[in-house]
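Re: the pair you flagged

First of the two:
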Amino acid sequence: MFPQRRHTSRIAATDLLARCTDGVILKRNMAKKPNTAAAGQIRLIGGQWRGRKLPVPNSPGLRPTTDRVRETLFNWLAPMIQGARCLDCFAGSGALGIEALSRYAGSATLLEFERPVAQQLEKNLAVLNAKDATVVNTNALNWLARSGTPFDIVFIDPPFRKGILLETLTLLEQQGWLADEAWIYVEAEVEHGAIPVPAGWRLHREKVAGQVAYRLYHRDITPNAGEEDSEQEQ
């Protein structure tokens, strides 16, 4: 008789093992994969298209707003988003504009300079059968320089370190792109510090995630609005 060979099982370090006293494996639970979209994708996190993943083309400087930041932002906007007319000034992946549509915004206009990126946005909107969505392949500053029609919510997430944020804010205010009580979301580099905004814009919420500072402003040009807010805070 040959001596009985002892067999050993090689288990990945990430496995969780439950063994009985004689060494027999009773159960193996594989480590869970994180629930995040793969590179080159965004994942919609709320509303009618929750969980849908959309492709994003490789493009220099393209920096989709992260799931965590979007979750916070749209919690802030929850009372205002339904039926709102939205403008996404530097749409890129569409993470903000399409997320707004998923959460039942009334309409969204997405501005994107890079043609391949704009074409992918159009394809993604077609796949979702999104209604009242418009992609404009344009330079955002040139588009905003003309006289506008008011939007209720505006998303501003420009390419970092290009020096175009302040001009964008000025054009939105001066050219009539903002409703009287519009909400304006701004992403900027942390090192940018405080942002000088037009008169009548009040900081509603702000947070920092890594190297990104994100803020939500409320535009209120109602006479004595600031005085009323001060009285309520006292």
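Second of the two:
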Amino acid sequence: MESSGGDGGGGGGGGNVPEDANDHCPGTQSENAGKEEPCAGCPNQQVCATAPKGPDPDLPAISDRMSNVKHKILVMSGKGGVGKILGVIENMSGLRQAISDMRFVKPSESGETDVTDWALEYIKEKAPDLLSVLACSEAFDSSKGGAEKMCHEMGVPFLGKVPMDPQLGKAVEEGRSCFNDQKCSASAPALKQIIEKLIKHSKTS
């Protein structure tokens, strides 16, 4: 399949032709992209040959899930300046996990023994209130102020901290909102406060 764009580098594939493509490039969306004779030696050949063709099959599902989201925040990254900074979020500020979601092990000279079932049953019997308690562990040293101090020194809004929450990771993988149930009890409140700050900031800026 030859392109119709003449002799210039990458001619003929319309808007789907990389700037550094070979002459007579069939275009990145062609079924034969990366496989035709003009593709030989092109720096994009392997990418074109293996990349999926056509529209993203996940777009309908994404559109459906986003249809009920009232406020959407687009996060982009590019070369050069970033323009106006909305604020800084300290991610993975520390582990926050419900005791009921934790795994318990008993160390020994021969290794570790999983005692999760026994431990949870013991807690449930002796101190059931502890099952709703969050266990906290600082993952990084923030004794010098961390991101919040940096924002203060640079005059940038500090929006908040998002803890490491295994349940939040599961929600992301499953494509569900962390606000729809009580599983993300460690991270959902923090995210809600950050979203409220962003909305307030967008209305005043």
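Residues 1-15, 78-82 have pLDDT under 50 and may be disordered.

-B.
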